[in-house]
Amino acid sequence: MVFEHQREYSSQWQAVVSIASKIGCTAETLRRWVRRAEVDSGQRAGVTSDERVRIKELERENRELRRANEILRKASAYFAQAELDRRPKR
């Protein structure tokens, strides 16, 4: 709505304030939605919503892999020590 009616106002902020009161949200909330829409459509620089989702997925996967590597490292050390303890002593 902001993009459609922006021409009727002297600034985008005035359009945001007017439309926000009509749809029942704060002007700041609507402003953020407008900025997000601008980024997603390529009108404004930034990370798109799809990219944000992908980054979060990659960060989660990275944490899981680090956790798994730590478990494997500890298990490897444990079994290496068990093998040393098992060898006959001369």
Automatic annotation (TrEMBL):
One of its GO terms (molecular function) is DNA binding. The lineage of its organism: Bacteria, Pseudomonadati, Thermodesulfobacteriota, Desulfobacteria, Desulfobacterales. Residues 48-78 form a coiled coil. Keywords: Coiled coil. GO terms for biological process: DNA transposition. The keyword Thylakoid does not apply. Gene3D superfamilies: Winged helix-like DNA-binding domain superfamily/Winged helix DNA-binding domain (1.10.10.10). It comes from the Bacteria. Pfam families: HTH_Tnp_1. This is Transposase. The keyword Coiled coil applies.
